[in-house]
């Protein structure tokens, strides 16, 4: 049988890489070196998920799970910037939950037109025109474009229905949906006829709400038996749960009370996503529908068990989807509970949420240096957005570009931090993580001595704030006189001891 409905897929997404900047020199007649004019590369396209009213299933992504956005164009001479890559917009149904590969929720897409950038495109590299400055008038290099993000995500479709019809297979859930709304699900007299959730819009007076037929609930559904785990997720968003119980079943060991207890146990054992803010299924509003009352034996059984169910505090309705009996009362009861649930949600939304601001710490350098151990010995790993981005933008075949990277890392304080953690010249340093990390042997930047005098245009020797007093000057002069006298006495003592002699006039021999 061909697959027509898919509510869970794994997507492999790749955003576009940024275009490379270009190193170019402007050339005109009688101006062979007119200055740098290399343009910047274009931004890579991003992958965007957008809620689309026309999308009802994830089937297209099940067939084609690999999606990629376009890359940015490289820059050109004469200060021409490259074109940006086109964003890839993927339409998804409303109620799609996006998770990462470890199961953490990234975003819950609710509301028509809602969109989320799931994979950001890479930045374009700067050309040598943008890199020029007063100190670097003609850069002979340009920055490379950043690679786009690669991410694997899981899309799960969770129906946005107000009421969920739950129960054993062939209990009449699809029949109820067909008579309560304009939906026309497949109906047959064998188990598991319904293989996909069916949604219908129901009108009761001025109230309008949606009803979902959730199939596949049998004992062990929370463990994946039958179609339980596949479709229990569609119950998570529903505020009202309607138990549809077959009172005309002939299966041994089946009766209304047992069926209700089995399904309630499955709901209690199923754990919904807490990040979605939903209450546990055991705390949702309950309604019991004793179906197939058009059969005489089924009506008698329904009238018999109805008092026992009401004794549990549950609202009970005896209906027949085939004979259209008891449907009006059931419809208005569901509308009443849905309206109550909506008012409760609106009241919670009206409460102002506290906004927590977490400013950046004063001592946050924007990067971290840690010592790690590997197969080839210890090494130092540098992590942080800016160092990793700068490495990806560097053309290591250009010595000037490598020097520019070293200057940027030095200004950021990376070398100072390496000294603090104990790194010495020749140690292995890794910038980044994973396969894109850059490994090199560290050679600290040498200082020629001028750096010790302060920044350009200043001299620490001229900026001292205090001058010696007269007594301090006299004390320093006495120390100099004492040192000279001590030196003369030492020389005289060595001469008397015969260690050396004064040369007389006319004597060509050197003193010993």
UniProtKB/TrEMBL annotation:
The lineage of its organism: Bacteria, Bacillati, Actinomycetota, Actinomycetes, Micrococcales. Its EC number is 3.6.5.-. It comes from Terracoccus luteus. This is GTPase Obg. Gene3D superfamilies: GTP-binding protein OBG, C-terminal domain (3.30.300.350), GTP1/OBG domain (2.70.210.12), P-loop containing nucleotide triphosphate hydrolases (3.40.50.300). Residues 359-444 form the OCT domain. Residues 161-339 form the OBG-type G domain. GTP binds at residues 167-174, 192-196, 213-216, 291-294, 320-322. It is an enzyme of class 3 (hydrolase). It is found in: Cytoplasm. Residues 62-89, 457-512 are annotated as: Disordered.
């Amino acid at each position: 049988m061909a697959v027509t409905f898919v509510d869970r897929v794994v997507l492999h997404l790749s955003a576009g890489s940024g275009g490379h900047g270009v190193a170019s020199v402007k050339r005109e007649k009688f101006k062979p070196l007119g200055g740098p004019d290399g343009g910047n590369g274009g931004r890579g396209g991003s992958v965007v998920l957008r809620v689309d009213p026309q999308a009802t299933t994830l089937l297209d992504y099940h067939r084609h799970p690999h999606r990629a956005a376009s890359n940015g164009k490289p820059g050109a001479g004469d200060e021409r910037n490259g074109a940006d890559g086109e964003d890839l917009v993927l339409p998804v149904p409303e109620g799609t939950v996006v998770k990462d590969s470890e199961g953490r929720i990234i975003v819950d897409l609710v509301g028509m037109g809602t969109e989320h950038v799931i994979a950001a495109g890479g930045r374009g590299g700067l050309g040598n025109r943008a890199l020029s400055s007063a100190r670097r008038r003609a850069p002979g290099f340009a920055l490379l474009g950043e690679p786009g993000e690669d991410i694997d995500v899981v899309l799960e479709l969770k129906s946005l229905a107000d009421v969920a019809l739950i129960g054993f297979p062939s209990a009449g859930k699809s029949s109820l949906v067909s008579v309560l709304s304009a939906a026309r699900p497949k109906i047959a007299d064998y188990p598991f006829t319904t293989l996909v959730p069916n949604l219908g819009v129901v009108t009761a007076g001025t109230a309008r709400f949606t009803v979902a037929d959730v199939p596949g609930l049998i004992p062990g559904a929370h463990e994946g038996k039958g179609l339980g785990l596949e479709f229990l997720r569609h119950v998570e968003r529903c505020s009202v749960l309607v138990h549809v119980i077959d009172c005309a079943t002939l299966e041994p060991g089946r009766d209304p009370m047992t069926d209700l207890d089995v399904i309630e146990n499955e709901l209690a054992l199923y754990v919904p996503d807490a990040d979605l803010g939903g209450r546990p299924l055991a705390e949702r509003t309950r309604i019991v529908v004793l179906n197939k009352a058009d059969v005489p034996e089924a009506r008698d059984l329904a009238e018999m068990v109805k008092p026992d169910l009401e004794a549990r505090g549950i609202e009970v309705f005896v209906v027949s989807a085939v004979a259209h009996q008891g449907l009006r009362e059931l419809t208005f009861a569901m509308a009443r509970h849905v309206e109550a649930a909506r008012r409760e949600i609106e009241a919670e939304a009206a409460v102002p949420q506290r906004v927590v601001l977490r400013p950046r710490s004063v001592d946050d350098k924007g990067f971290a240096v840690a010592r790690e151990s590997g197969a080839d010995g210890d090494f130092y790993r540098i992590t942080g957005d800016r160092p990793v981005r700068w490495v990806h933008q560097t053309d290591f075949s250009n010595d000037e570009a490598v020097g520019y990277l070293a200057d940027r890392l030095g200004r950021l304080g990376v070398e100072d931090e390496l000294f603090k953690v104990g790194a010495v010249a020749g140690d292995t340093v890794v910038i980044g993580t994973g396969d894109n990390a850059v490994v090199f042997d560290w050679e600290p930047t040498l200082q020629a001595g001028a750096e010790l005098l302060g920044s350009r245009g200043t001299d620490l020797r001229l900026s001292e704030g205090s001058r010696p007093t007269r007594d301090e000057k006299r004390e320093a002069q006495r120390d100099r006189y004492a040192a000279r006298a001590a030196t003369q006495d030492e020389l005289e003592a060595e001469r008397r001891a015969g260690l050396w002699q004064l040369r007389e006039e006319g004597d060509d021999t050197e003193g010993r």
